[in-house]
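Friendly challenge for the regulars: who can give me the structure tokens for this chain first? No prize, just bragging rights.
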Amino acid sequence: MTERILRLTSIRRWLALLAATLVLAACTPIIAGYSLQAYTNATQLKAETLALIAISGEPWADHAAEARALQTRLDGAYEFSAGTAYNQEATAMWAIIRDRSQDALLGSFFVRWSKGPTGEAYRTRKLRRIRLAFDRLICLEANKKEKTACPAMNPDAADAATETGNE
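First reply, four minutes later:
Bragging rights claimed.
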């Protein structure tokens, strides 16, 4: 009889430990909480990036310092995001936006502009695609605070076109 009571007590302790573990695991966040700094980074850098793209019909040399400064601020926003726990989704979005490789979102823009002024059709496509990328990031950050309706997130078919040339 005593052995049976000890076994039941052991099972109850094990179940209590399991229940406590599950409760703690359920309380662990799956995404970072709202950060005013993260939201501000996204909205401010969106405005700065779009403004720079809008003047890319002018020579690169006239704006190279501004472009490098913007890239530095984008890197800072990425680092802020990467340093925030449970923020992998936002960090991945920043990585896509700031990627400096030639076939990346902003990377291809900077490479193209450094070769000469961009044409209006190219700027229009880039503005749409980069606006969409920032809007997705801003929507994610806003929804960390409270459920927020976001604008339609579908790029136009023209945005999928190859983005080379001066058009």
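The longest helix spans residues 2-27. The chain is about 65% helix and 0% strand. Your move, everyone else.
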